[in-house]
User: Fold this.
Amino acid sequence: MVRALGWLTAVGLLVGIVMAFGVAPREVTQGNVQRIMYVHVPLILASYVAFGVLALASIVYLVRRDAAADRVAHASGEVGVMFVGLGIATGSIWGKPTWGTWWTWDARLTSVAILFVMYLGYLLLRGSIDDPERAARYSAVLGIVAALDIPLVHFSVYWWRTLHQPPSLMKPGGFTGSTSILWPLVVNLLAFMLLYAYFVARRVRVLRAEAEAAA
Amino acid sequence: MTADNWGFVAAAYGLTAIVLLIYWRRLAKQERELEALNRSNAERSREPSSSGLPRPEPSSPTPLQRPGAPRP
Amino acid sequence: MSWARRALAVAWKDLAVERRSKETLNALVFFSLLLLFVFQFTLGGDRERLAAVLPGVLWLGFVLSALLALGRTFLVERENDCWEGLLLAPGDKSAIYLGKLVGNLALMLLVETLVLALFVVFFDIDLGRAMPGLLVVMLLGTLGLAAVGTLFAAMTANVRARELLFPVLLLPVQVPVLLATVKATEGLLLGEPLAAVAHWVKLLVAADTVYVIVSLLTFDVVLEG
Assistant:
């Protein structure tokens, strides 16, 4: 089952990268460096999914005390932090030639940076607690606090400043870019979602095996 | 015509590929080691002990037993 | 013993312990004086620059003091082997949370008032009309910090690298509070009325509500063991 997911993911990523370079056009204002978007955006969005799943799994764990939920939260946190870290890095690499700077404290970047540090803290908390049951409990509490904090972070930072490109995918009027940009983006988005699921599935399997070995 | 900055494109895609590959290989390595560990544990529990006395539980922490593993 | 009475008992005990030993209070006062001197050395000469950075500097001082105070919330229990006592306490453990919160709030507000007074005196700042609004912002901001800080202090009380993990966990989560308080203070110190920074105040109220409710609900889970 997981192997099938793995193969599907590989196919998805392959098609995605072919489309990013073959189908997607050379962007008019930015040039070919804009193609970084086809990994940057999927990474960020997939990390949002990861953190959402983490929040849900945390709630499920606190209610049912099911270790499987804890494993999903743990794995989701790991993959989420990795994806958002890569997202920030690729965004920075994209920003240097296009904006002229590696970093800027606009609303979007600042929020994502805070997200990264918050969930990195989540992983650090897990790493600091030896007792597995307590680690699961405390991480679940932190996961819930972090999730509830996200809208507060979003608004506070947004009110503080705005500079980033207006979100073209999530705008109410719909996507205004051409379809030859849209399809490579959608395909890569799906591919990275599959990659997230695949990584989480394998990581959960490892965690379960670790638990069995320790028992 | 704007510069293409293929170097930056390569850096972004390359970094992503490297990190994801490293994580993937780490997963594979963990799976292999745990499989071996669990298999040897299972074999040991199936073998009858030579002296006829009950065998003691494996108590020493193995290299793979990390403190953070939750109970099943 | 009723829930509220138990909460008050915890708060009263903490404040009584603090009043006798004055350990945390002394540390915080000394630390604040240190901050004052450092800021004077770096910014004291240029009044315009000082006015521009004052809100940030003030809240930086408040936050650093808060980290010190909050980090020590469960120190007494930890050092005197009373942690198990907390775990075994009958009934709703959230009463303990509320008591700790009230104690922390009182201590933090006391130190903040002191720091503010020192700043006013040593940097010759005219608070004037800003004062009532400033008090509101200080109260709301401190509540936000203390609400999550008390919960996280309990969570990190018995883990490795406690002193490092506590601020690492608390500060990113507190960004909304930090932003809102600094921007609101900035506006108020520029002479704007409280209504002009209303959106920041509303954010603080929303944040405080979320933090206190979630902490009350999850504190029992943290003190399970």
User: Anything to note?
Assistant: Residues 163-175 of chain A have pLDDT under 50 and may be disordered.
